[in-house]
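User: Okay, second chain of the day. Same drill as before: sequence in, structure tokens out.
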Amino acid sequence: MRRLATATVLALGFATVPLLSQLPDVQRHLDAAREAAGNDHVLLFDRICAEAERIAAPRPPRTARRGPRPTPPRESWYAEPVQVFDNLYYVGMTDYSAWAVTTSDGIILIDAIFDYSVEDEVIDGLTTMGFDPADIKYVVVSHAHLDHAGGAKLLQERYGSQVVMGAADWDLLDERNPAWKPKRDIVATDGQRLSLGDTTVTLYLTPGHTEGTISTLVPVRDGGRSHLAAAWGGTAFNFGPDRERLQMYTDSAERFRDIVEEAGADVLIANHTNFDGSKTKIPALATRQPGGPHPYVVGTDTVARYVTVAHECAQAALAGL
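Assistant: Same drill. Structure tokens below.
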């Protein structure tokens, strides 16, 4: 059955990109991305290598959204909080992630999801797991889009949590001035070590998805064993045929892959549950036997291959231009 499942994934799981693949340089990068994806990162490959084709193909401009987004029904997005490591908790939604890093002196939150969901997921989630949400000292926002930054203002105003974003993303929010914008707080710097109590996370500026995107390394523990989690801060190509942005993206991905390999990161976490396999890994935690393999500990090669997929798909899009 395992062989059948693998064959099905390989036959059906990968997106096809017929227009771009007619170009030899594009095909070379698509092949490299497909090889890097293996069976571990199929959904990532499908999403962003398909976007590479759309970037190169002409399309009409998008109509600007008018008015506030409607709030979806709670049953369509709510997820229970889960302890993933000794010091790392999942407090996100079914599709959008938020990660709480617990330390000896408070909590570092990575991403604040939507303004409508932060109360139920982050605040109530931490309370359910036995923590005081008032102990959220830092909110690291991977990038300044509503699905990751929307809840930061509430946490800032209610608890005094300090919000950390890249300078370009603070500028982006100032330009757009959404109702959920937090006040300008900490401006992240490349390689910044953010320490709280017994824990230090390291922030890297990896522009591309937005110009202020932050990727993060987080030390985690599992029953006395130490691991290092890597979070790639922005994944999709949410821009049109912009050569400068694509070059920025691919350079960032190449650099962060090198950082992952040098640091020996062996755990992958993402800000969307499809990309890091959380939709299967979180249920697997519930049936894990004491001392058994941890579903999130995938090894440095697998983490590096994840970022390689992002890099090669961006290279394919560049070649297609």
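The first strand starts at residue 82 and ends at 85.

User: Thanks, on to the next one.
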